[in-house]
Structures are given as structure tokens and as C-alpha cells.
Amino acid sequence: MNLAAVFDEHAPGLWRYLARQAGATAAEDLVAETFLAAWQQRADYRAELGSLRAWLYGIATNLLRRHHRTQAQQTRMAERLAGQRAEAEDGHDRTAERLDARTHLRQLAAAIAALSDGDREVLLLSSLAGLESREIAVALGIPEGTVRSRMHRVRRTLRATLPAVKGES
């Protein structure tokens, strides 16, 4: 495995995937950690099980999970230390249109957040990383049929959210 060539080919896509979920600075660190982990686990990679790209996205997804857990713990700790919970945004100075858009976005974000971890990971690997069902299956270590089933469930759940969002306008 020529790590430099693999990095040149896959780092930009991994960075975009991770930056959309964790921010640009964290994405840089997560990409570096992904390639470090890939190098350390290079003996475990089996080309017959799936593409190198899918394997790298699997590593990145696991690191992203850990990053989100750490961020959530740090946020809870900061809130406790400050003695207060984050307050809801005050929207009284906003126009009705912007408020509606934010409300709709929150509803959609809440629907995505309410998905199971597995369903959300399949959605994000598909929509943000552009992976195909087979690659997602390899990345998450699950059967391809499970990926398709999860995507169907995600689409059905999000479609059920969208009419409510559209109906409030």
C-alpha cells in the first residue's frame, strides 16, 4: 500500500465528508487520524471484501463517532461548569420568513438526529460522501441488503417529516 498515493486520492473526499459533520479544523485532524489508523491496520485490509475507499470511510466514520461523543461530553461539562444550560435562540428580531426557514431546518435536523445511529450513518455516507450501497456496507461492516433497508427506512421517515414542514408555511 503506497500511503502517499492513497492519501492523495482519498483525502480530499474524506475531508469534505468529515468537514460537513465536524467542521474544517476537526476534519483535518480526523483525516490524519484516519490515515494513521489505516496505516496501523493495513494488514487487516482485504480487497476482496470491498474497495479501499469504503474501508477508509469506515475508519473515518468510527473516528467521527468518537469525535461526536467527545464533543457532547465537553459541551455537557462546560454547561455544568457555567451553571447554565444553553438557551434557545431568540428569534423575535428575525423576519417571519427566516424564522420559518430555521424552523423547517430544525425539524429536518431533528428528524435526522432522531434516526438510529445506523440509519443516520447510512444516510450521511450516502448523501455526504457519495458512497454506493456496496461501499457503505463495507464501510460499516454490514450486509448490503441492510444498507438498502436502512436507506428505505430513512427516506420514508424523512418524507413523513417533509409534509409537516411544507404544511406550516
TrEMBL record:
Organism listed in the record: Paractinoplanes toevensis
Is the keyword Transcription assigned to this protein? Answer: yes
Q: Name one Pfam family in it.
A: Sigma70_r4_2
What InterPro entries does the record tag this protein with?
RNA_pol_sigma-70-like (IPR039425), RNA_pol_sigma-70_dom (IPR014284), RNA_pol_sigma70_r2 (IPR007627), RNA_pol_sigma70_r4_t2 (IPR013249), RNA_pol_sigma_r2 (IPR013325), RNA_pol_sigma_r3/r4-like (IPR013324), WH-like_DNA-bd_sf (IPR036388)
Which GO terms are recorded in the biological process aspect for this UniProt protein? DNA-templated transcription initiation
Q: Which GO terms describe its cellular component?
A: DNA-directed RNA polymerase complex
Does the keyword Cytoplasm feature in the UniProt annotation?
Answer: no
Write down what this protein is called: DNA-directed RNA polymerase sigma-70 factor
Source gene?
A: rpoE_27
NCBIfam families (alphabetical)? sigma70-ECF (TIGR02937)
Of which family is this protein a member? Answer: Belongs to the sigma-70 factor family. ECF subfamily.
Q: Which GO terms describe its molecular function?
A: DNA binding; sigma factor activity
* Keywords, ordered alphabetically: DNA-binding, DNA-directed RNA polymerase, Sigma factor, Transcription, Transcription regulation
Looking at the record, the residues that make up the RNA polymerase sigma factor 70 region 4 type domain are 106-158
CDD domains according to UniProt: Sigma70_r4
Q: Which residues form the RNA polymerase sigma-70 region domain?
A: 7-72
